[in-house]
From TrEMBL:
Residues 58-101 form the Transposase Tc1-like domain. GO terms for molecular function: DNA binding. The lineage of its organism: Eukaryota, Metazoa, Ecdysozoa, Arthropoda, Chelicerata. The gene is AVEN_93903_1. This is HTH_Tnp_Tc3_2 domain-containing protein. It comes from the Eukaryota. It comes from Trichonephila clavipes.
Length: 106
């Protein structure tokens, strides 16, 4: 794990941008190896002060977002599907028993 003082501007920007892209805290922590404490401290401080206001910023938010996207973090969440009921399980089992002798040629 990295220490809070060891983070550079880019890594702080990654944390803030990932959160603004609606990535979960757990995703960001696992992907980049930051602790939850560091993540929350950096994000809280960025919310308290205007993070991108300084003229020393040498990268744009879009650059950070593109890099996060290229690293594999996506903002989509899996769709919830209904679970199989006992009736559905029984129907599937019946169908499988009726068709267990099928081959690729059928």
């Amino acid at each position: 794990m990295r220490c809070y003082q060891c983070l550079n501007e880019f890594e702080s920007g990654v944390i803030v941008s990932a959160r603004e892209m609606e990535c979960s805290i757990s995703e960001v922590v696992m992907k980049f190896g930051f602790s939850r404490t560091i993540f929350l401290r950096v994000y809280r401080e960025s919310r308290e002060s205007d993070f991108n206001a300084g003229p020393s910023t040498s990268f744009t938010v879009r650059t950070v977002q593109r890099n996060i996207f290229d690293m594999g973090l996506r903002r989509r969440r899996p769709t919830r599907v209904p679970l199989l009921t006992a009736r559905h399980k029984a129907l599937r089992l019946d169908w499988a028993r009726q068709h267990r002798h099928w081959t690729n040629d059928d």
